[in-house]
Design goal:
Glutaredoxin, 44% helix, transport, 4-stranded mixed sheet
Length: 85
């Protein structure tokens, strides 16, 4: 199973939806709350090629994008393979 990292902030509905999908699949992930730490937001933006909205999701060393992209991978039947590596 690939490592999964998700950058979030408080009161973000898209963050909640992305985490809900991952949890429904039994995926453990590391969450970084950028609302509490400006340095984490800068790290997120650097890793996400300037992406400044949350969530920003990484599976293994691949930047997936946000909630919409995560759900699109699921609808296309590609998320499980990506998670498996």
């Amino acid at each position: 199973m690939q490592t999964v990292e998700i950058y979030t902030s408080n009161f973000c509905g898209f963050c909640v939806a992305a985490k809900r999908l991952l949890k429904s699949k039994g995926v453990e992930f590391t969450e970084y709350n950028v609302g509490r730490d400006p340095a984490l937001r800068q790290e997120m933006m650097a890793r996400a090629n300037g992406g400044h909205t949350v969530p920003q999701i990484f599976i293994g060393d691949k930047h997936v994008g946000g909630c919409d992209e995560l759900h699109a991978l699921e609808r296309a039947g590609k998320l499980d393979a990506m998670l498996a590596g």
